[in-house]
Amino acid sequence: MSEVVYDKQRLKRARLAVAAVFCVHGAVAGSFATRVPWIQDHADVSAGMLGLALAFPAIGASVAMPLASRISHRFGARTALRGLLVMWTLALVLPSLAPNLPTLCLALFVYGATSGMSDVTMNALGVETESRMRKSIMSGLHGMWSVGALIGSAAGTVAAHLGSDARLHHALAAATLTALGLVACQGVLDLQPEPEEEAPPRFSLPPKSALLIGAVGFCAVFAEGASLDWSAVYLRDVLDTSAGVAAASTTGFTLTMAVARLAGDAVVNRFGAVRTVRAGGVLAAVGGLLVVLATHPVMAMGGFALMGLGIAVVVPLAFAAAGHSGPNPSQAIAGVATITYTSSLIAPSAIGALAQATSLVASFGLVTLLACGLTVFAGVLRTGGRKAAQAAPADVTAPGPRS
Predict the structure, then answer these.
(1) pLDDT tens-digit profile of 242-271?
(2) Is 197 exposed, middle or buried (0-12, 13-18, 19+ CB in 10 A)?
(3) Contact yes or no for 142/22 (Cβ under 8 A)
(4) Suppose 375 and one of 10, 125, 201, 281 were both cysteines; which one would form an S-S bond, judging by CB atoms 3.0 to 4.6 Å apart?
(5) Could you please report the per-residue DSSP string of 232-270?
(6) Helices H / strands E in the chain, number of each
(7) CA distance 241 to 30
(8) Are the C-beta atoms of 193 and 403 separated by less than 8 Å?
(9) Do 360 and 237 meet the contact criterion of CB atoms below 8 Å apart?
(10) What's the rounded Cα separation, in Å, for the pair 8 and 217?
(11) What does the DSSP 8-state code read for residue 384?
(12) Is 339 within 8 Å of 205 (Cβ atoms)?
């Protein structure tokens, strides 16, 4: 990408702009999630068929994400993000229009594809902004995604409580978020490819560096997916709690993740990415042990909260490390994103299958082991550290400006 010199004020504005993009992206996801029951009823699908349909967003994202780097190269980062983000916000309308299973699967495939491509592009711009600011910002950006998801889900909860038609709700949400996204995109870095820079391939396997970094992200996302989808079930079935207490465990997990991401950059700038992830792995493993050994709901709820705290910054730091690991940040980020999306796809079903064969307690024993992997393999996030050492604290994934 060709280099443009940005002063500190413009970089601050670029950081705020890309943070707003993350927030808009999260708001779309939150808006969709709260209306899934309405969409299920409208499409007249069973729980099993709905589970099949809900695999299609991850499939669409995995297929489309490798295209993001080529689109950025063709049109420039800002224009690519503007177009892809608009496609994502407008795709919110599609699932609620689906009258049956085949159309719902197709709608969710498109929804996931546009999500994945805009996700890769905004993370690549986040990494470049972090690079030029010479300090960690990726955790905070992902924290803004969580804030957006909470805002979107809160609005969706109100709409569902009022009994509104999801088609109307999502049309209004899509129009609002599209406008906000277009405004936000105006302030992001405007990166253009060098004239002699070769276009990345349309489809390619993730680079080796992305595979190692993605493995760390896999462990974190597996724990996240397992906790989000199974924490309430765990408290209800294993510890015989009420539905309200069970739901509170999921809420606690989500809140600790959001808070930790918003505060994570200060920790990473102070201690570095590797030490932060290693400490997070210890917290997540301790949390997993509390869940597995819990004899009282409070103990399990504390365990899930610790897991949320421990894994919160891992994925942002994995994207940052991928972006600094080679000459094509978008391609490396797409590789890591594909691995983490795959983890989010298989985690809930893997936990269910293991629970069916053994028990939920054994399933979260596996989650605890994967959390230990964060501590063991955190060193791969040191990618690009030789450049960073000249401008940032040790292990911080924030090298200097890159052309």
Answers:
(1) 877 887 887 788 788 888 999 999 999 899
(2) middle
(3) yes
(4) 281
(5) HHHHHHTS---HHHHHHHHHHHHHHHHHHHHHHHHHHHH
(6) 18, 0
(7) 27
(8) no
(9) yes
(10) 31
(11) T
(12) no
pTM exceeds 0.85, yes or no? no
213 half-sphere exposure, CB direction, 13 A CA radius = 32
What is the token pair recorded at 373? 């992997």
Cα gap 321→381, rounded to integer Å: 5
The CA distance from 218 to 144, in Å, is 21
**Alpha-carbon gap, residue 2 to 403, rounded angstroms:** 5
- Across the range 68-74, mean pLDDT stands at 85
φ, ψ of residue 2 to 5 degrees: the values are -70, 150
Instruction: Enter the DSSP assignment of 327.
Output: S
Report the C-alpha gap between 151 and 130 in whole angstroms.
25
Closest by CA to 341, choosing from 112, 87, 92, 148, is: 112
Confidence of residue 218 (pLDDT cuts 50, 70, 90): very high
Q: What is the mean pLDDT of the chain?
A: 84
Can you tell me the distance from the alpha carbon of 222 to that of 9, in angstroms, rounded to the nearest whole number? Answer: 38
> What are the phi and psi torsion angles at 192 (to 5°)?
-125, 145
Q: Are 292 and 365 in contact (CB under 8 A)?
A: yes
In total, the chain counts a number of residues equal to: 403
> What amino acid occupies position 163?
G
Of 158, 68, 83, which Cα lies nearest the Cα of 117?
Answer: 68
Question: What's the CA gap between 203 and 251, in Å, rounded?
Answer: 38
Task: With CA atoms as reference, report the closest residue to 278 among 308, 253, 313.
Answer: 313
